[in-house]
Write a structure and sequence with these properties.
By secondary structure, the chain is an alpha+beta fold. The chain folds into six domains: 2-125, Rossmann fold; 143-181 and 447-552, Orthogonal Bundle (Topoisomerase I, domain 2); 186-251 and 379-440, Topoisomerase I, domain 3, CATH 2.70.20; 258-373, Orthogonal Bundle (Topoisomerase I, domain 4), CATH 1.10.290; 557-598, Ubiquitin Ligase Nedd4, Chain: W, CATH 2.20.70; 615-675, no CATH class. It is built from 17 helices and 27 strands. A six-stranded antiparallel beta barrel has the order 7-8-12-11-10-13. Strands 2-1-5-6 form a four-stranded parallel β-sheet, with helices on both faces. Strands 16-17-18-19 form a four-stranded antiparallel β-sheet. Helix 3 crosses helix 5 (127-154), helix 5 packs antiparallel against helix 15 (511-525) and helix 5 (127-154) runs parallel beside helix 16 (531-552). The longest helix is centred in the first third of the chain and has 28 residues, at 127-154. It is globular, with a radius of gyration of 31 Å. It starts with a strand and ends with a strand.
């Protein structure tokens, strides 16, 4: 009997379907060893040797695996092909004391052919990959377990710091500062609505030049300047000065990487990175897509060949690009050999509707279309640019009409068509209206999950497997929160912690330094560097700085303010303290007196509609999320996520709540809504 061990039961079930009775496929249920939660778990004096333990939740299953392994002729470790998968395989070998009676196999997709090929090409565990993952884990543990207690002492209990997550918080906080400091500038545009003589439909042209010189975006600064131009154009003849026609060709996008899949799923469905990865994991383990943690845009020769055949047979020869499109990833792409694609290109999304739930279907549809379209011909547009002279001014209008859809047939991404009338040079047009418009420059947009992931990737921060955990962690720690538009804003505690780290621990939140650390981890993978010297080089200065800051920084300077209020319980002065979820009033005689009260007004002056006795008050969950509930809890369990107002629904009489830019009924069965 040969035993194959994978991470998940779903993956085990899928692989079992491909193999005969000689193989038994079991699941490790993820990691079987880890650093302890209660202590640092790293022997700093002994070359940072990690002290691994078997978590309680893993012991029962590990004992089952050990008994099965004792009966096996051969153990085959078939965990994922990235660093974390290699580390899981190594931990399994260590925990089960496997010596020479094991093999390691890797595959990029869970198909019969891929599994059989992997079984024919076994290898031993790649210690370079293991060391890189181990180094990352130790670095993160050192930062988290050394810096977090410091934050507890100097800012507030319950805080924690992370090596990569702190960079994400910094990006959000700095973007917020840019928005606060932004000074809006006024500018004007002038558009002419023009009509071909004897025609009915007017088209628009925008003012672009004066005396042959380009008018830039901010050049028309105010109404006075705009009015002067309108005066100059009074009585002008609008004549076509130039017509330029050309073909515009648009190339398909490369197949998905982890990052681009997460970004696209957010744009299309407003899914979090965590939700995207959960559904991608299901699709991978069921054998529908290739491995979903990758930074590569390559496609295998088999995928290229089968996609070419599919495109020609289903759409015709002219829809294939005529050559294999091979894409190159920006930056470093070393961890996986292939982009995310369907395992079988002929498995059209509509044919899998009965096998997938709604979310899995949506994600598979994205992957399938992007992968197939990446090998198709260009989309071709007929483009027309027309310059119109009026005295010493020039207006321009652009038209675009789709000539050949190409890859758009499969992946219909957004584009704008604008058809212009047949025009000739020197033709005189009729002006129907001249429209001046006032505008103001806008600050940079707050990050969404999609744009924050893109920024991290562009800076070389994190790996495909880390983007989703980063997004979850910075929200779970209440350092950032999503506003009503699902964009990130830093919380009060997030800004305080970020400012402290930037000022006193600049390397921890330095983008360049963190990116360099990622490169060092890549060098471990490529056997160019050893992991212990990298940790030593980081930890020495970090520990020295930490000890110095322990002495220098006072909690009073960061996390508390004096007030004129007096504690009603012991008579001591009341302070404003900073906690995980913002500022609050607290007795200065803490811990002898534990009196606290919220800084923000809790009572909304709204009677509870359920018990008719209590008042609706603002509350927070254990993770700091705001909700609104009856103050008579647990006698009354009435609660709402959205903020209620002192109005009732005209349809059903339930409380109305604020939801973004709308006022809606709190009763889910009622469709009443209105604008604020």
């Amino acid at each position: 009997m040969k035993i194959i061990i994978v991470e998940s039961p779903t993956k085990a079930k899928t692989i079992t379907n491909f193999l005969g009775p000689k193989y038994k496929v079991l699941s490790s249920y993820g990691h079987v060893r880890d650093l302890p939660k209660s202590t640092l778990g790293i022997d700093i004096e002994n070359d940072f040797k990690p002290k691994y333990i078997i978590p309680t939740k893993a012991r029962k299953n590990l004992n089952i695996l050990k008994k099965e392994v004792e009966k096996a002729d051969l153990v085959i470790l078939a965990t994922d092909e990235d660093r974390e998968g290699e580390a899981i395989a190594w931990h399994l070998a260590q925990a089960m004391k496997l010596k020479d009676n094991y093999e390691r196999i890797v595959f990029h997709e869970i198909t019969k052919k891929a599994i059989e090929k992997a079984l024919d090409n076994p290898r031993k565990i790649n210690i370079d990959l293991v060391d890189a993952q181990q180094a990352r884990r130790i670095l993160d543990r050192l930062v988290g377990y050394k810096l977090s207690p410091f934050l507890w002492k100097k800012v507030a209990r319950g805080l924690s710091a992370g090596r990569v997550q702190s960079i994400a918080v910094r990006l959000v906080a700095e973007r917020e500062k840019e928005i606060e400091d932004f000074i809006s500038q006024e500018y004007w545009t002038i558009v002419a609505k023009l009509l071909k003589l004897k025609a009915q439909n007017a088209f628009e042209a925008i003012l672009i030049k004066k005396d042959g010189e380009r008018i830039n975006r901010l050049d028309i600064k105010n109404k006075k300047q705009s009015d002067q131009i309108l005066k100059d154009l009074d009585g002008a003849e609008y004549k076509i000065a130039n017509i330029q026609k050309k073909e515009l060709k648009r190339n398909p996008l490369p197949p998905f990487t982890t990052s681009s899949l997460q970004r696209e799923a957010w744009k299309r469905f407003h899914w979090s990175a965590k939700m995207t990865m959960r559904n991608a994991q299901n699709l991978y383990e069921k054998g529908f897509i290739t491995y979903h943690r990758t930074d590569s845009v390559n496609l295998s020769n088999l995928a290229l060949t089968t996609t070419k055949k599919y495109v020609i047979e289903n759409f015709g020869q002219k829809y294939w690009a005529g050559f294999f499109r091979k894409y190159k990833a920006k930056g470093r792409a070393q961890e996986a050999h292939e982009a995310i694609r369907p395992t079988f290109v002929n498995q059209r999304p509509e044919n899998l509707k009965t096998k997938l739930d709604n979310r899995q279907f949506k994600l598979y549809d994205l992957v399938w279309r992007r992968s197939v379209a990446s090998q198709m011909s260009q989309a071709i547009f007929d483009s027309t640019s027309v310059d119109i002279s009026a005295k010493n001014y020039t207006f321009r209008t652009n038209g675009q009409v789709l000539k050949f859809d190409g890859f758009l047939k499969v992946n219909p991404i957004q584009y704008e068509e604008k058809e212009l009338p047949q025009l000739t040079k020197e033709e005189v047009l009729e002006l129907t209206e001249l429209i001046p418009s006032q505008h103001f420059t806008k600050p940079p947009a707050r990050y969404t999950e999609a744009t924050l992931i893109k920024s991290l990737e562009e800076h070389g921060i994190g790996r495909p497997s880390t983007y989703a955990p980063i997004m979850s962690t910075i929200q779970d720690r209440n350092y950032v929160q999503k506003n009503e538009n699902k964009r990130f804003e830093p919380t009060e505690i997030g800004i305080v912690v970020n400012n402290l780290l930037v000022e006193h621990f600049p390397k921890i939140v330095d983008i360049g330094f963190t990116a360099k650390m990622e490169k060092d981890l890549d060098n471990i993978v490529n056997d160019k560097e050893e992991w212990v010297p990298i940790i030593k080089k980081f930890y020495g200065p970090f520990e020295k700085n930490l000890k110095q800051k322990e002495k220098e920084i006072s909690k009073k300077d960061i996390a508390q303010e004096t007030t004129n209020k007096i504690c009603p319980e012991c008579g001591s002065p009341i302070l404003i303290r900073l906690g995980r979820f913002g500022r609050f009033y607290a007795c200065s005689n803490f811990p002898k007196c534990k009196y606290t009260e919220p800084l923000e007004k809790q009572d909304l002056d709204i009677k509870c509609p359920k018990c008719k006795k209590g008042e609706i008050v603002l509350k927070r969950t254990r993770k700091g999320k705001i909700f609104y509930a009856c103050n008579q809890y647990p006698k009354c369990d009435f609660a709402l996520w959205d903020k209620p107002i002192k109005e009732t629904c005209p349809k059903c009489g339930a409380l109305l709540v604020e939801k973004g830019k709308l006022i809606k009924c709190s009763n889910k069965g009622c469709d009443f809504k209105k604008k604020k």
